[in-house]
Description:
Blueprint: H1 3-17, E1 39-42, E2 45-51, E3 92-95, E4 112-121, E5 127-133, E6 139-144, E7 147-153, E8 159-162, E9 170-179, E10 204-210, E11 213-222, E12 225-236, E13 243-248, E14 253-258, E15 264-270, E16 285-291, E17 294-300, E18 305-308, E19 311-314, E20 317-318, E21 321-326, H2 340-352, E22 357-360, H3 367-376, E23 379-383, H4 395-412, E24 418-425, H5 431-447, E25 452-458, E26 460-461, E27 466-468, E28 479-483, E29 500-502, E30 509-513, H6 532-546, E31 552-555, E32 563-564, E33 577-578, H7 591-607
Parallel strand pairs: 21-22, 21-31, 22-23, 23-24, 24-25, 25-28, 27-29, 28-30, 30-31
Antiparallel strand pairs: 1-10, 2-3, 2-4, 4-9, 5-8, 5-10, 6-7, 6-9, 11-12, 12-15, 13-14, 13-16, 16-17, 18-19, 19-20, 26-27, 32-33
Alpha-D-glucopyranuronic acid binds at residues 193, 362, 425-426, 483, 513, 558, 578, 580.
Amino acid sequence: MNLRYLVLVVVSLAVAVSGEAAQQTAEDLRLITNVDHRETVSLNGDWHTIVDPYEVGYYDYRWRPSQWGFFRDEQTRDESQLIEYNFDDSPVLRVPGDWNTQRDDLYYYEGTVWYRKAFSFERREEERVFLHFGAVNYEARVYLNGKPIGRHTGGFTPFQFEVTDVINSGENSLVLKVDNRREQDEIPTVNTDWWNYGGITRRVLIVRTPKTFVRDYLIQLDPEQRGTIRGWVQLDGADPTIPVTIRIPEAGLSRTVTSDVAGRASLSMDAAGLELWSPTNPKLYDIEIEAGGRVLRDRIGFRTVRTRGHEILLNGEPIFLRGVCIHEEAPLRTGRAFSVEDARTLLGWAKEMNCNFIRLAHYPHHEQMLREADRQGILVWSEVPVYWTISWENEATYQNAKRQLAEMITRDRNRASIVLWSVANETPNSDARMKFLTGLIDTCRTMDPTRLVTAALEKSYRGADTVVISDPLGEYLDVIGCNSYIGWYDGLPDKPARVRWRSEIEKPLVISEFGGGALAGMHGRPTARWTEEFQAEIYRNSVAMFDTIDVLAGTAPWILMDFRSPRRVLPGIQDGWNRKGLISEQGERKQAFEVMSKYYQRIEAEDE
Ligand code: GCU
């Protein structure tokens, strides 16, 4: 064996024993929430990158892994050294952002890209320092100043590592190995109908905190007692029993609590006079949480959401969810969306269509989308990518799904807009799938008793034109989602008007997907597939069908905007795009947009 490799293997094995934080589990995420209102330093911008399809930066020629990666950032080189890479002279990629739409040579790339950010930092006494990643798709191995810091899998949820004892005062080198390959036993699995955008797709922040600080909290109305705020505050640090004061100044509310030895303090506040959050009045309150002389701020809306028979109740009143599905595809520029501007454009289009509800498919979207939905008064269905043919029998797959669900709930459980957590989309029934999904449903209820749990199920027929939902999972859900493409995959555009629905489950039903495709600007007879007229005809007949479903609690057409998918390869029409959008990715409204807008206008008038 070559001496160099021998040295590296020995050194690497030594390092492998130290250093890398184990991947969190759902039970011990320790995630710092509400980073928007903390002291942070942004590491967004240009990062040097090395495309590494054979992972030579991680495995030696005998395919043995080095825990710190051979692509460490060598600061000192002598001319005789054999080093076959150089970050400084390598091309840059923008962070946040997927790599597929930044470079033509990476459009279809699925594999490893190494990212390196050199930055300077001034340490302070009595502080703790964390690296926070909004999301990295799909596996991230993180190294700081040559040391392995940790690993995370899951392309749509935040994660962080404490680097208090690793970050330098002065120059630092942060290196990530990012690998977006699809694998059968991952979440999602290999089979999806969306583009596998790889990269550091959301923001990267350094978070600075006091030695003991407020890490996380739940401050929401008690769904069974609308006049009471119930929740808790979680401290993190050596002195977990310092008093914590929660204030809502505008409402004249203040409560001081003391944490237990684990840093957890329960919270209960009389909130009878609070203005309730709703789509027609998206009232947000400034919240102050003071501990150890430091004040953490947030903006929180207060509302309750429950069900009664076939109805969804918002603040005790029935509400019809006038929705639309949204993928995290950036409008106009395309690629992975990540900015508040992206969120404002997409939510603006949804509101133009008279929506009060969005289904964020099929994975947790970026945090700015949820904060913008809070501000604009739009109700949200938020979902983990437990999609189609998951490896139901694999325990590691289940733990991965459960952790991603916990990461989603932990990040967003104070967002008034979110009313539904979804644990799955169109999953084939089996005993293993039922065990897997009822476990996720339990996790939702344990972590967040204030919201409803749903999933997008598939329908079945009883006779030629009667649809029933007989999925056994329905029994465990609060709200039944059902995807139905009558008129597109199932019959022609006139079929929906003939179909009747029978719901055998006494729970609210939301048609969580429906519709069909059209190329914007393509016109012809309503019988000519891919014309706007064909798509609009599906929508007109779908609306006629909805008018016959008296237990309907909401609808969400698939989908607001065309989105990239490798499954959609029809030349001249799809070209790698799923064309079921009501709007093209360039913002061109199709005729069906108007059909939905008028339907929701009528529903809204009937609800008043
Ligand atoms: C399915 C699936 C979507 C997919 C859509 C389609 O219902 O849930 O993710 O994009 O159908 O076929 O376009």
